[in-house]
Amino acid sequence: MLSAMKPPHYAWIVLSIATLAVFGALGLARFGYTSVLPAMQTDLNLTNAQSGMLASLNLAGYLLMAVIGGALAARFGPRTVVTLGVILAGAGMVFTGLAQGYAAIAVWRVVTGIGSGMSNVPVMALIPAWFAAKRRGFATGIAATGSSFGLILVGPLVPRLLEAYGDGQGWRVSWFVFGGVALALAALSGVLLRNHPREKGLTPFGSVESDSSPAAQAGPGSQSISWGRVYRSFAVWYLGLVYIAFGFSYMIYLTFFAKRLIAEGGFASAQAGGLFMTIGWISLICGVLWGTVSDVIGRKGALVIVYLFHAVAFTAFGLGGFNLSAVVFGLSAWSIPAIVTATCGDVLGPRLAPAALGFITLFFGVGQALGPIVAGMMADASGGFASSYILAGGVALLGALGASLIRPAPVVD
Length: 413
Hints:
The protein is mainly alpha-helical.
């Protein structure tokens, strides 16, 4: 009988809201910049180095709060921290659209980055609290697809706004739309997110019902935090070093994606947006695919394979194989953050996962902040971005090598 049907586990509600938070904090706040950049660069007469600096400042803000945000979430619970972070990211995008010059935009890109880091790291690290170890890769893969929805939206939307309002105002309207959507998602996060299954009288999805041990019941917001376990863990430090390669290489790829296609590849704005959207549609499966693969073959093997996919995608883009690159990257796009998040839960358990993910995001953020600056400077010096993308491919290959040397750690559930 329908009346006797058991309602879905609340973990799926949390996962849905987490995915939407990632959509607002990264899919719009960060990747929206890629589609808006060509018009904004022309209107403000920015050099490639300045454009790269704006991206890096956004990432510096992300880095600043990612570590702190993870620690705050471990102490006070992700719900409040995530909600405030998405609000800050949304406001930063709105004020980016209102800014009148490079300096003001730089400030608001930093603010947007702070909000992104404050929300994205805690909301991703929330997943290990709601899903048992055997489901973590799958669940974090779903949450990571929030970035895919960002590409799907901004790819076709920005060219239409530019056509409707002109390049001089269209990029501003784009930021207003992005910011408004993020503020609405912040309200949903505040209402529906929960810090731990115990708040709903539940155990993590996929766990045995009889598991009532302190380790299983402890979650974000508990009173005692063993900070030393995070900062003294060799596995956490090494994972952070491997994560640098992803931050450096993929931010080069996405930051100047539309710029290379339009300025050097002969693409119209709508065509570039269409290829960007294609990545988004293809990447809808990547997080779930590779997260599940990591559940089956292990995090180490999955990381190596995904890094190799990225090396092919970035190098192909530098050599002019734009369509091939988009497909290969789409098949693997957000898999590395999903696998890394699951690994943090494996190594330290759901209680310390937010702090661990925040800590290794410090390494990831360094790579992100350096990538666009280096690529922009190389493009100004060489007259194009081909060499920058080949560099990104080489760094991704180093990431695969580093991942192959990861030592398996005992799983903490």
